[in-house]
Automatic annotation (TrEMBL):
Main function: May be involved in recombinational repair of damaged DNA.
Bilayer-crossing regions: none
Coiled-coil region: 155-182, 321-355
A UniProt-annotated Pfam family: SMC_N
Alphabetical list of InterPro entries matching this protein: DNA_recomb/repair_RecN, P-loop_NTPase, RecF/RecN/SMC_N
GO MF, one annotated term: ATP binding
Any one GO BP annotation for this protein: DNA repair
Organism name: Flavobacterium micromati
SUPFAM superfamilies listed in its UniProt record: P-loop containing nucleoside triphosphate hydrolases (SSF52540)
Keywords: ATP-binding, Coiled coil, DNA damage, DNA repair, Nucleotide-binding
One cellular component (GO) term of this entry: bacterial nucleoid
Protein name as it appears in the record: DNA repair protein RecN
Location of the RecF/RecN/SMC N-terminal domain: 2-505
Nucleotide-binding recorded as keyword: yes
Amino acid sequence: MITSLSIKNYALIEKLTIDFSKGFSTITGETGAGKSIILGAIGLVLGKRADLTSLKNKEEKCVIEAHFEISKYNLVPFFEANDLDFENETIIRREILPSGKSRAFINDSPVNLQELQDLSLFLIDIHSQQQTQELSEENVQFKIIDAIANNADIIVQYQSLLKEYKAEKSKLNALLKKQSESNKEQEYNTFLLNELVAAKLKSGEQEILEANFEQLNNVEIIKESVDKALAIANDEQLGVLNNLKEIKVSLQKIAPFSIEYQVLLERISSIAIEFDDISEELNRSSEKVICDPEQLDLISQKLQVIFNLQKKHQVSTVEELLNVQSSLENLVLELGNIEEEIEKLIIAINQKTIELDSFAHNISQNRAIAIPLLSEKLIVILATLGMPNVRFKIDVAATETYFLNGKDELRFLFSANKGTDFGLLKKVASGGEMSRIMLAVKAILAQYSKLPTLIFDEIDTGVSGEIAIRMGEIMKQMSHEMQIFAITHLPQIAAKGDAHFKVAKSTIGDDTLSELKLLKADERIVEIAQMLSGTTVSDSALNHAKALLN
């Protein structure tokens, strides 16, 4: 339960520290006095988003701190899972800096808003007028039934399995679509692949083929040129080799006379050796040059195949064609893998369908047992709230659709008076009836919930008199199980509280301040009397206030 709340520099509150006790506490105050500010501050502690408009003084930071006694609520696993220090009296602090940045702490450990919100689910339920209207929504009605049916754990298992089921279904649909598209392209891809495989391409072969083609295609001029070069080199009278030998002999005669001639001899000797080697190479090359029209034709055909493939696939090298071939091989192979993966997914999905159906059946069975119990309890409580002839008809029907909480659809029908037909709750229930039904629901859920604190924000809308007294008694009874706060405009409910707080607004100079104060016994009498008669308190109003308190 919440034991204290400290607020600094928030909205109309400059500084406030207030302690709370267990049991039933009521909060009253004129419209606009600041009751919503208190709720807003608690909301920030529970992880709601904040902005700079929350700061009273825009130059200073806003700090809201709440203390919670949580020793009896089995929250140690949550703290361990989130790597937080557990304390029986846990402190949550929220800071909003002038820069607009927000910080949050649990027992002085920094946390993000999601962690605050997750923890808040175990601490406080703030019931607003908007939630009363949400009672007519199917998902809220299911939550009520499932709480009584003790379906929480099984629904968690169902939702976990449903998440896996949907992921696999999505993957299967994507694969089936891909398979359908691949089937259309498969024949063409296979044709392209076979064409490339038949070409027997090798990396670097295009350059070799083009070189060989040039040689074979120009064999006559090559032969003629090589032979001519050999003739010039080897002619007995005028050949280059013979002339080099004569030059060498002449230099040998004068080499001893000068280093200059010795160097020239060495150079001409080197040229003679090199040219002799060239001559030998030309001779071998001449022997290799053979006219082979058949080989030329084969090379030409292979090059034409390569050129055609390059044009078809819009590439310029054999290496790129080999990459295209590899990609096509993967595409063709991938279709076979897709078929295998589809088969595996279908088996897995069928198995999950069986498990989901089993979970959904158990959820539905538990609901079928809980619904009569819920109707009975609602009727009993609502009879005390001035609705003696109320009836409920809650129908649950199984479907083939997997919803987030099972496979059921729900019709929550209601009749307030004898002789009237059943109708959907949201269509036939008045505002006052909805408030009473919601209170009855919360009273029933309090028996099943382990939640420490429940705050009612004007749940008494549309009721008065004796019914208000009964509503106060029900909240008082609920406070035996949990800490209850009621923000109310009705003196009948305010008088039922074990503690009574008043929110008041005051003006000091040009500044407006809001404060929350715990009323003493005599102050409480005056406050309830004012709620009965207005600002001018009569003796009868005071006596009535004392009677309500007693």
